[in-house]
Amino acid sequence: MKIVLTGNDLTVSDVWEIAVNGAQVEISPEAEAKLEAARKLVYELVDADVPVYGFNTGVGWNKDHKIAKEFFEDFNRKLIYCHSFGVEPEASEAEVRAMMAVRLNCLLLGYTGIQPAVARRYAELLNAGLHPVVPEKGSVGEGDLTPLAHIGLVMIGEGEANYKGRRMSSAEAHKLAGLDPVVLGPKDGLAIVSSSAFSAGEAALAIKELRELVDMGDIISCLSLEGFNGNTSPIEAGVMAARKMEGQAKSAERMREYLAGSDIYGTYPGKPVQDPLCFRGAAYINGSLRDALEYAQKYLFIQMNSTDDNPCLLLDERRIISNSNFETTTLATAIEMLSIVLSHVSRMSCYRMLRLVNPELTKLPRFLSHDGGQSHCFGTIQKCFASLDTEIRHLSNPCSVDYLSLSGSIEDHANNTPLVVQHLRQIVKNLQYIYGMELIHACQAIELRKRQGKFNLGKGTAAAYEAFRKELPLYTNDRPLAPDVKKAYEFVKSAALLRSVGEAR
Amino acid sequence: MKIVLTGNDLTVSDVWEIAVNGAQVEISPEAEAKLEAARKLVYELVDADVPVYGFNTGVGWNKDHKIAKEFFEDFNRKLIYCHSFGVEPEASEAEVRAMMAVRLNCLLLGYTGIQPAVARRYAELLNAGLHPVVPEKGSVGEGDLTPLAHIGLVMIGEGEANYKGRRMSSAEAHKLAGLDPVVLGPKDGLAIVSSSAFSAGEAALAIKELRELVDMGDIISCLSLEGFNGNTSPIEAGVMAARKMEGQAKSAERMREYLAGSDIYGTYPGKPVQDPLCFRGAAYINGSLRDALEYAQKYLFIQMNSTDDNPCLLLDERRIISNSNFETTTLATAIEMLSIVLSHVSRMSCYRMLRLVNPELTKLPRFLSHDGGQSHCFGTIQKCFASLDTEIRHLSNPCSVDYLSLSGSIEDHANNTPLVVQHLRQIVKNLQYIYGMELIHACQAIELRKRQGKFNLGKGTAAAYEAFRKELPLYTNDRPLAPDVKKAYEFVKSAALLRSVGEAR
Amino acid sequence: MKIVLTGNDLTVSDVWEIAVNGAQVEISPEAEAKLEAARKLVYELVDADVPVYGFNTGVGWNKDHKIAKEFFEDFNRKLIYCHSFGVEPEASEAEVRAMMAVRLNCLLLGYTGIQPAVARRYAELLNAGLHPVVPEKGSVGEGDLTPLAHIGLVMIGEGEANYKGRRMSSAEAHKLAGLDPVVLGPKDGLAIVSSSAFSAGEAALAIKELRELVDMGDIISCLSLEGFNGNTSPIEAGVMAARKMEGQAKSAERMREYLAGSDIYGTYPGKPVQDPLCFRGAAYINGSLRDALEYAQKYLFIQMNSTDDNPCLLLDERRIISNSNFETTTLATAIEMLSIVLSHVSRMSCYRMLRLVNPELTKLPRFLSHDGGQSHCFGTIQKCFASLDTEIRHLSNPCSVDYLSLSGSIEDHANNTPLVVQHLRQIVKNLQYIYGMELIHACQAIELRKRQGKFNLGKGTAAAYEAFRKELPLYTNDRPLAPDVKKAYEFVKSAALLRSVGEAR
Amino acid sequence: MKIVLTGNDLTVSDVWEIAVNGAQVEISPEAEAKLEAARKLVYELVDADVPVYGFNTGVGWNKDHKIAKEFFEDFNRKLIYCHSFGVEPEASEAEVRAMMAVRLNCLLLGYTGIQPAVARRYAELLNAGLHPVVPEKGSVGEGDLTPLAHIGLVMIGEGEANYKGRRMSSAEAHKLAGLDPVVLGPKDGLAIVSSSAFSAGEAALAIKELRELVDMGDIISCLSLEGFNGNTSPIEAGVMAARKMEGQAKSAERMREYLAGSDIYGTYPGKPVQDPLCFRGAAYINGSLRDALEYAQKYLFIQMNSTDDNPCLLLDERRIISNSNFETTTLATAIEMLSIVLSHVSRMSCYRMLRLVNPELTKLPRFLSHDGGQSHCFGTIQKCFASLDTEIRHLSNPCSVDYLSLSGSIEDHANNTPLVVQHLRQIVKNLQYIYGMELIHACQAIELRKRQGKFNLGKGTAAAYEAFRKELPLYTNDRPLAPDVKKAYEFVKSAALLRSVGEAR
């Protein structure tokens, strides 16, 4: 698979393909032309000798220092050096690929004036599988200079890289890959580091999984509702139309499809008019997640397909202009909102599990015990999902506005986008575990309900149930739970649930 | 002024007019017709004797209790009683008007089946100025049943009300206003309490002021930039086009208009290439506020113009359907994001003030002292805006997901929208103070800069500067600061700054 | 009542007496002597002309400015002026008295060198009932300069004051009280403002009420346990001895006393071995509150009885020494911990109420309905205590470390003690409401249980029950709940519950 | 090294020795006797057939199920199974040793009635180096049942273990170690899982490092102060005596010792009276950390040397009593306070670094550049420590009170102690990095200051400086910073700084 980068249309799915599945990349001819034109302009401006930030001046507080032409290489190398101070843990190779893909794509818009050879090198390294070692910590947003510098370090033949499954020096990796390290010229250092590609790349990975999770959430809610034998009135089309909220209407519509033909539409004597809110509101809160996700995705797409470089080279105007285009505060706060909504989604899932083990509500055995209540079964696992849910809640505490004024009163704003995104990544992981556990509960309830008498599932949920049961049989108290939990998590993470109902992202 | 309510097009400005400026309201004929049709259906359903939540059944855990026809009045009165447990402080009369206007508007969509006379009564009370006493605390979202019950209490002639500036019993107020209390029939109690009109009404008041604040923020940023004599490159159109972010592009465009003709476009020897981020990024963070505000407004508008009632009467289908349309989680989390963005906006303003008193950066006297640095002046006021900023930061901590499972495992979700909105209201107030203080700083800096030599302001900023200077002269250390701070706050709160540049919301 | 202040032994009860009950104050002769000796030293140091911060130099960033002798009055007046920038709301008169009492007491240690006449003036104003108007906001901790400056402003005859129930100018109030405003000399301005007396005074009021609440918590837990007819094994002495935790052992001991003679020690067929943790752990969590309270009280006592002035005059060494004794970070973080523990205490109380209305657990009518379950009763009030509990949780978010670097890089630490303390004050108020509601629940349950058959309460709880029942009869669904909630709150706030069992704080 | 466990006197240093340095353990004879006596009582109670929680009844909601004698083994094995649902990541072997040591020690008090052979097995596994694989997530506090169950799983010959550097099945590990798995009898399962040993063990490791960090903090503050050439007046003994705060007095005393003989006591023309608060308040905030640490240590010691088992076997009374002794809320909230104080400590360190690179304050080259300001040097590393500091701030958000009500309304309190402790562990690690960076800054400043002319360090600081300089030379912009940062971190983590001044913990 080969993905052509243009600077204008990189999607989260593309990033996932490149990062996780190792897709190759190619630069579009139009983009190549833009790179060349921009570089030409840079040299003309060097000759014109106008002071431009980070170009022929120092950076940060040192912006009043002038850099003479002959020191460009030295200046740019040292600029890479002194931004290379990242702290463990190291990003995975997939994460490094994601950030390289995003950085390359944004460079293609021609606003940086980077050497075309350096830009091309991102593609070459991606296609060769030569992955710089990048520590994750050290950026406050406002450009992820730290992690990106570690990529630059490897590009110039220093630092360490992973290549074909082995960690080695950059020099060795280059040799094995048949590449010479690059030599930096004016503005190259800044073009390498001055970007939020670390945040955007990691965000793309998280959002890709979240798009799957929100869709799987609708399926899982349906399975739990059938396990609970609850009410479908809250997802009726008429009710949704009256409310005018698009997100929840979409989730409700999907749920109606999955449940088509289910015995849940039947009734029985004494059936309560209304279920607990965790069931009744499932489509509504999944809908809130859709609303928030749409907002976050909009700004992530812009982030991956516009320039975040400072200064910005305007080809038409033949100027380099200082700016704050590295600001990612809308994206950071969008993700913070998304994290808060996810804490609602997670808690709803937990409550559904708590209700599913309550015989008073389900008419099923207490704790979904296969033997009618003698065994411990689902009584204790609650501590597991509850602790993961609490961690989600903690991770959803915002941190974007917590910053120090740096660099001699100059860098007096930050948004901590990298930390915000890493929190989201952990939230996604925890939710994958929690949804895995909800699947265990829902399918256990369904199986016990089927044993009580015929109970047909919906068209979609039947397929989902079968797929999950292939992975995991009924839990009967005769084995430790941990391996089941792990398997269910992997089932969710792989998005097998979507494929089971004939969907794929 | 008279505002016609239709159920479909109530804006935050309308709510402000009704709530704060005492505008009268009128129900549109189409809405009247819908109310009648819905009520007719209710009685037909009563005769059909189908169990419907809160209608001929109990509510919450008591949903399994059946209510016989002859007890409808008693049941609905007691339903009002036992939701009337609000806790101080009391909402202002403007706040009560806001929630009544919103509740009325949503009723007009015909999804509740309320007695038309009861719906009309909201309009009659608003137009008579008879305002129920409503305690603010006691709702967890998922319908603001508590505060709304206190309105119902007054409607049936109990509890207390404010009427023509005096607090009195509901009975007395009705007498003086020439009205008889209403008598409740089936579904009326639930229609009165089952709504988020308290949250939505308060949110409308906050959002109205925020819309003004975001626009004033652009003006204030310009004044500070002139006081600082900083750079305009970050707000150039070319830079904004390259970034593709709409919010920041709009703020930048507005700033360019205000600054047209300013001496700030001139340069001087040794002028730094770049300013501190609080100046450089002003349009960008104001833009992030625009982005978040647009999202929040979208969902607030839906909230004020759709049904949030449970159960929901569907005229076409001739049914009453249980649902979760009272869910306001998208709105609650949108406001939580808005609050986080506001903490960025506030901190940017604070940093601009900190930079404006730094002679190294401004070439103006330290602490903007009129006498060249001997006086204390603006050294100490920093503690004031810093403490308000810290409070904003604290208020922006989310709380929507912190809830208990109530009502016997049934109400196991909440979003605390009222608390979220009240936090926003306090944030708005603090920001009005902080912006007032920034105006004091910016104008002090401009005046001192003018004294150093001719310095022409932009077209818009000149007007703004003059308007503010009419309120407050140069600060010369010869008086306590508190009254100045209060005046500047009131100047901002009144939106006089917008009017000074020929804008009004 | 007259309280003699020595600088060494002011307690929270003393502060309460002075602040709330209007006790008079007197300065001890030893303290008078210290004040005189310190002032003498100040004048000798003035003559020696050594540069000392805020004494003959400016303050903050202006610390490099020298102040000549002849400008002392002017300098100190202006120092008061430009710290007088507090923001609404205004402190209550009780709060103003509390902070004045604490400030005076600390001055008596002789480390400030303030004019003895100025120190005495605090006592004179307190005894005359002349209370400066003090806005609450504007201090970041590190000395509550802002609110304290407003006291200084009134002392010099400016600003506004409350006197005998009326608000008036300071000048008028002085005239009516027969006092002349003071004239400030060297170091007086700083001695007036450089203190954390605002935080400490408010903290003293909060802690005084908390000491009562923790004791009442033991009684209320007992009443709820009897209403629940739960188990006493968790409070047995042997269990407590095995655990070695002092706080919980004390609460358990007290609970055993209150319950002496109760029918709760009896058993019945099918009685569960263990109760929900909100009952089982009541003494344990009340104990955690005791633990945290002891820690906070220790540091509050030091704060009220040591110097927090900078610079600090050392009589023995005959020097004035710059320092950071205004640091109150231990106290601020102790209160933040206390707030977190209170959020546990509050939640435990809420859960007890949720359990008390569950017939499956209590064998009492659902929602403690007097008529066997037909009425709404205690189903809806849950939203009220839950919303107050959520607010407590939000208020317990820490904010001490959220600060800006002020005053030209000099004031680069803060702890926001005033905001932290105000959060605690609101938490205390909410908990008083919540405990009020728990009393309503517990006594309702007890009364219904008594109706089921004889059920004798413990020695202490019987007295408490009777006292509360005198205030509030059984709730029978025939009235709005709000007035009951208010009464119960006032019962708790007045500590009547303690007096009912023969205890007083 | 062999550590004798008695149940009464296990210290954090002991835990560190056992966990990290592989010390062997031995059970004291008195403890052995207690174990035997308790077990004897258990069997007598089994015969007496009294219902006791988790002993001859089910656990949690299943507490109403009775367990017959002949099913003890099966019941206890399944109890282990269904608590074994932990989620990644896995605890390190050191962490597993820590929790085993703590669990064993508490068992020795004889309150559980565990089989002596099972208790002894903890010692045997520790001494053999057979370490169960334990996933870290899955406990909400209130007993760390999940992680501890994984130890039990290995004890009965199931699950996985690490043995001599290799991961293998429990069965294989037992075989290689020459041990037979244990067979569980009555109450053994609960005795294995019902404990907070996971939290306590991890806390012990964190507190051990914190004790070192607080002492190193005093040294580092001194080095920075010398680098800054600041004032010592704030740490004078007279000032500390006036304040009466023990923690800060101790830090100040230590700082005076380290600085004895330093040229910092000299003065120079124009030396400011006062330094920024990050220097002036260093001893004070380090002191606040001492205060909080003392509180936390007190309760951790109790936790490690008392029983946290439910039910609790009282030998004297010959009874098993249900209780809540697993409550660790005082400890959890103490650690939450500690984390908040650490966020202050961290921020102070960051500000000291920000001040040390400011030439206006230090008269040293901007950004401590060795070549007079041309190089980037310490301008960019600020993003690194700032981002770690922001993460600390986020980690210090409390989460103890965020929980769900589990197990059918029975487990309706939690404190999330494991998550709280893991946050502390990460905070400690980040602070070790930050302190490493402060050392880099301080020593760079000192070296540059020495180059400006003779500057003698204090007795203690000279030794510390030399020791650090042996690890890391002056930074001259000619290399990436990351390896330096890592080295400095390891220097701090190893506590080499303490040894350099002749101290060891």
Any chance you could write out the topology, listing elements then pairs?
Four copies of one chain form a homotetramer.
Chain A: E1 2-5, H1 12-19, E2 24-27, H2 29-48, H3 72-81, E3 87-90, H4 93-107, H5 116-128, E4 130-132, E5 135-137, H6 145-155, E6 160-163, E7 166-169, H7 170-177, H8 188-193, H9 197-228, H10 237-243, H11 246-259, H12 277-280, H13 282-304, E8 312-314, E9 319-321, H14 329-356, H15 359-362, H16 382-395, H17 417-452, H18 459-471, H19 482-493, H20 496-500
Parallel strand pairs in A: 1-2
Antiparallel strand pairs in A: 3-5, 4-6, 6-7, 8-9
Helix pairs in contact in A: 1-4, 1-9, 3-6, 4-5, 4-9, 9-11, 9-13, 9-14, 9-17, 9-18, 11-13, 13-14, 14-16, 14-17, 16-17, 17-19
